[in-house]
Specification:
Strand content: 5-15%
Structural class: alpha+beta
CATH architecture: 3-Layer(aba) Sandwich
Distance between the termini: 9 Å
Radius of gyration: 14 Å
CATH class: Alpha Beta
Shape: globular
């Protein structure tokens, strides 16, 4: 993947409501690939909001963890699909990420 733009956005600050993140994501083209980097517990709250529409996390990231989500069109609360979730240790074990993971 080419990194066209690296941006720091306030929507990823821990005290923000996940809806603020959705507003930021809607600024991108619907076909865009976007990587979000942040800290716990806010990332788990955002994952829950994007996949099931609630702020109550159903899982927590470990340090260095990665989740892959997919959305049809612009994301809305509860409309994204969790494709996979990996810990840092899992990523270290596989080394180079295989193309079969669709990332």
């Amino acid at each position: 993947y080419n990194l066209d733009t690296i941006a720091s956005v306030e929507a990823l600050l821990p005290y923000k409501h996940p809806e603020e993140l959705l507003k930021e994501l809607r600024l991108y083209d619907q076909e865009s690939t976007v990587m979000l980097v942040g800290h716990e517990t806010y990332l788990s709250e955002c994952l829950a909001y994007l996949t099931v529409g609630t702020h109550d996390p159903f899982m927590y990231f470990q340090k260095g963890g990665v989740a892959y989500l997919s959305c049809e069109g612009h994301p809305t609360a509860g409309a994204c699909d969790l494709k996979w979730l990996m810990t840092r240790k899992m990523l270290e074990q596989i080394g180079d990420i295989p193309s079969s993971l669709n990332i």
